[in-house]
């Protein structure tokens, strides 16, 4: 993820004013709080993904319709990031993050009581909007409160909370749905989310590096529009949109294949497969190190090719090969995302635009639109249709990576 993206939007004081360094009690409290916040966010956001077959059966709807329970959340999260970033400049980082986590927890606990799919979708949309508050402010808070020499480590732990939360939500909900129904499974993840919100509020320290500023929504939008004037940024936004659309499609609909006649697995066993999500954390870290050696363009191309290769492996009829393919897809996605988001942060810093916020907008809109469209591919052609659809997406990322390789060295370095 882009550390530079976080630093850019923050009001950064002089080095001597940074009170929290790695190893200090304050640093540990901040890291614990943000880790808990990230865990809460991605646990409730993605827990529904492991329950899509159960939701489709219970509400008697298609996989594509069931996938809206995730798509509406990610769409509202995307739309909320830019305005809530501006709002946090006026109200402060901690009030926005605290309200975000507790509101999301309440919506998550209420969701299992939905009498209809429509009510569930409304609650999931509100949950996504609430979660945008943490995504919009967490990295800026870290950049304002943590000493620059300790910032990379703090960011790494925050990103780890994102990945672990995404895995835990899928794993916990998928494992529980075999024992209890989907409502109880969602309720458990919602309760966990509220517990994490309590931990966040108890551990977080008051802002010292934050200076309130007017919430200039018009200025923010001008900066957003300016970010579309750079061709390299446009291609990176497209990379984020396509990457997330393909990745979420694989995870949305794999459960339908594995619980179907081809493999006949239980929901609990399918839930355990989400452990391969850990491959993403390792891939993000490795991509960051290897980028320094091979360059951003080459690493993006390599990771995108890996994602395409994993999609090919997942067409096999052997479960071990399918799981191996899922590991490769996951690693390829996270590696690509790490490179692309970092590249956006660097170019945005040079251009002075809201590039990272726009990238997040495109990234989550890709999840909402691409993931739902993947359901129609499943309906039209089964897993073969999903493979062609996600393969075309990966091929699109490869083509974009090739065009990014052709940037002049000076422009590519931005």
UniProtKB/TrEMBL annotation:
The chain crosses the membrane at residues 30-52, 64-87, 94-113, 119-139, 151-172, 184-204, 236-256, 268-287, 299-316, 322-346, 358-380, 386-407. The keyword Lyase does not apply. InterPro entries: MFS, MFS_dom, MFS_trans_sf. Its main location: membrane. Residues 29-409 form the Major facilitator superfamily (MFS) profile domain. Keywords: Cell membrane, Membrane, Transmembrane, Transmembrane helix, Transport. The keyword Transmembrane applies. Belongs to the major facilitator superfamily. This is MFS transporter. It comes from Tomitella cavernea.
């Amino acid at each position: 993820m882009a550390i530079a993206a976080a630093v850019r939007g923050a009001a950064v004081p002089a080095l001597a004013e940074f009170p929290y360094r790695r190893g200090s009690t304050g640093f540990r409290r901040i890291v614990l709080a943000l880790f808990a916040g990230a865990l809460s966010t991605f646990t409730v956001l993605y827990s529904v993904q492991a329950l899509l077959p159960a939701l489709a059966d219970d509400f008697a709807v298609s996989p594509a319709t069931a996938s809206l329970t995730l798509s509406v959340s990610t769409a509202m999260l995307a739309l909320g990031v830019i305005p809530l970033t501006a709002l946090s400049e006026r109200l402060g980082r901690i009030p926005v993050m605290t309200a975000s986590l507790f509101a999301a927890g309440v919506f998550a606990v209420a969701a299992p009581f939905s009498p209809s799919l429509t009510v569930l979708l409304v609650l999931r949309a509100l949950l996504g909007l609430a979660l945008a508050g943490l995504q919009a402010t967490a990295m800026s808070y870290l950049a304002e409160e943590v000493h620059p020499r300790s910032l990379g480590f703090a960011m790494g732990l925050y990103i780890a909370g994102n990945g672990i939360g995404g895995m835990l939500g899928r794993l916990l909900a998928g494992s529980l749905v075999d024992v209890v129904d989907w409502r109880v499974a969602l309720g458990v993840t919602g309760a966990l989310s509220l517990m994490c919100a309590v931990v966040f509020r108890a551990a977080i320290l008051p802002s010292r590096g934050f200076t309130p500023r007017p919430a200039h929504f018009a200025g923010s939008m001008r900066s957003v529009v300016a970010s579309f004037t750079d061709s390299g940024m446009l291609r990176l936004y497209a990379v984020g949109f396509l990457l997330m659309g393909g990745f979420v499609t694989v995870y949305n609909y794999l459960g339908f294949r594995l619980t179907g006649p081809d493999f006949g697995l239980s929901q609990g066993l399918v839930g355990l497969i989400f452990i391969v999500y850990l491959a993403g954390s390792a891939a993000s870290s490795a991509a960051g190190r290897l980028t320094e050696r091979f360059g951003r363009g080459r690493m993006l191309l390599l990771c995108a090719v890996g994602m395409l290769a994993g999609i090919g492996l997942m067409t096999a009829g052997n479960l071990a090969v399918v799981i191996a393919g899922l590991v490769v897809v996951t690693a390829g996605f996270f590696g690509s995302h790490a490179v692309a988001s970092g590249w956006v942060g660097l170019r945005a810093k040079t251009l002075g635009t809201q590039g990272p916020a726009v990238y997040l907008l495109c990234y989550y809109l890709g999840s909402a639109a691409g993931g739902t469209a993947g359901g129609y591919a499943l309906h039209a052609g089964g897993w073969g249709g999903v493979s062609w659809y996600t393969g075309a997406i990966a091929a699109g990322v490869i083509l974009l990576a090739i065009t990014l390789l052709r940037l002049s060295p000076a422009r590519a370095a931005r």
